[in-house]
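hiii, so i know i said id send this last week but things got crazy w the move. better late than never?? heres the sequnce for the chain we talked about at the cafe, plus the structure i predicted for it. fair warning i was half asleep when i ran it
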Amino acid sequence: MANALRSVALKGDSISTREWGKRGALAADLREAVPVHRGTLEAEAPLAPLSWFRTGGPAEVLAGPADEADLAALLAACPADIPVLVVGLGSNLLVRDGGVPGLMIRLGRGFSSITVDGMRVRAGAGAPDVKVARAAAEAGIDGLAFLRGIPGTVGGALRMNGGAYGGETAGALVEARALDRQGRAHVLSRADMAFTYRHCGAPDDLVFTEAVFEGGPGDPAAILAAMGAITDARAATQPVNTRTGGSTFKNPPGRKAWELIDAAGCRGLRIGNAQVSELHCNFLLNHGAASAAEIEALGEEVRRRVRETSGVELEWEIKRVGIAQPHSRS
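okay and structure toks below
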């Protein structure tokens, strides 16, 4: 492939060192390698509209495969040295200002189906968690209402062991389906996923396409009422309907991140147009024109102050991806 370049794997919380290829070359090479690709393939696609923070640079290539077979062909054609990253609703993502080299995949309509069979719910990786929760509730399946509190997709819940309001993905998952970088399908049991707190131990290069969840029998009205309570609790305690990225830091063992941040005097702290939420200080806000560098610098300043006041090293929960451009304090 003409544009093969020096690269490293693109991690969700590290800076990419891969160089950008010639403008449009990677997209052209992929179109040539997969002439029957039925989805979308866009070079230098803007990513800010896909992130809740509404900031950051473009993707070298953004693909929207039509279905699993389309995705398999795309992955098989993509050289091993080209980083691949999957994006869902962008609710837990900070795209750095230099953009994201390599191939970014967005799972859309072809990965959003939800079906119910007994006490099990099968959902595509692109299905919003809230829709899975509602489908389960309407079918009288208890144990999945917690998904109402996760503002992402099934794929993100699998990759991060997403959880909220007393429940987490690990407790409800039966199995997950994924494709590897050669386009081969794998079915992973709950044990294969090696879940820990806000972490999945499955190989990073797997792209999840589907999940099966299981609950127990329950009263639909009661489950929907519980979901309504989750909605009300989020609205009262979190900055919903704003340019944010959800919980910024993981809760340390036995501690709550927001309490440590508050005790460090960071509530309302601001760098440029980025601010720590005054409503819930484990949320960072973009007041309209913040760069990703400002948001990340604010997060690092919060980590520094918490470390100095409590000795605790906060760990990012938001996934920061792409090439960083340094923030100027001038």
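btw The domain at 112-237 is CATH 3.30.465.10 (Uridine Diphospho-n-acetylenolpyruvylglucosamine Reductase; domain 3). thought thatd interest u
miss u guys!!
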